[in-house]
Amino acid sequence: MRRLGLALLVLAMITGCSSSSDDGSSTTAGTTATDGTTGVDGGDATDTGTSGAPDPSGTTHEVTSSDGVMDFSPEDITIAVGDTINFVMSATHNAIEVSKDTYDNRGVTALDGGFQVTFGETKQVTFTEPGVHYYVCTPHVTIDMIGTITVQ
Ligand SMILES: [Cu+2]
């Protein structure tokens, strides 16, 4: 049942997103679907009373990277449930979600079901559950090109 509920939730998000954005809505849908499965750390959600779809008018935030600059901007960001991050990666950087352990150890093993923004890609990812997401730039993780997204 919970799985079905989650699927419906994701579906609602997709519908909400595609109607409010006119570019790349199909890729948005794809990332939203995978994002839904990363909600493992959302299990401690206390306010599940809002079991309806997240606010479809969530804010879109931007995380960017630039060639020659070995940092995400911003590196750490706090957003609300239902908000979207528009990742804008330059040609030399990517943003790959990893586990907290991988992040702490500066590893590059991608998190199952996590978001992945490849080199030079612009991709929107919507976060539908509270929790913390950790991500790295795989070529530059060893020089601390890392970031977090806190969803609350
Ligand atoms: Cu990088």
Strand and helix layout:
Blueprint: H1 2-20, H2 25-36, E1 60-66, E2 69-73, E3 76-79, E4 84-88, E5 95-98, H3 100-104, E6 116-117, E7 122-126, E8 131-136, E9 146-151
Parallel strand pairs: 1-4, 3-9
Antiparallel strand pairs: 1-2, 4-7, 5-6, 5-8, 8-9
Helix pairs in contact: 1-2
Keywords:
152 residues, alpha+beta, Immunoglobulin-like, globular, four-stranded mixed sheet, disordered N terminus, five-stranded mixed sheet, 29% strand, binds copper (II) ion
Strand content: 25-35%
**Largest sheet strand order:** 3-9-8-5-6
The average pLDDT is 77
| Count of alpha/pi helices | 3
Largest sheet: 5 strands, mixed
Radius of gyration: 15 Å
SS elements, strand count: 9
Helix content: 10-25%
In CATH, the topology is named Immunoglobulin-like
Q: How is this structure best described in words?
A:
With 152 residues, this protein is an alpha+beta fold. The chain has one domain (2-45, 55-151): Immunoglobulin-like (Sandwich). The protein is 24% helix and 29% strand. It contains 3 helices and 9 strands, in the order ααβββββαββββ. A 5-stranded mixed sheet has the order 3-9-8-5-6. A 4-stranded mixed sheet has the order 2-1-4-7. A hairpin with a 2-residue loop joins strand 1 (60-66) and strand 2 (69-73). Helix 1 packs antiparallel against helix 2 (25-36). The longest helix has 19 residues, at 2-20. The site of copper (II) ion has 7 residues, from loops.
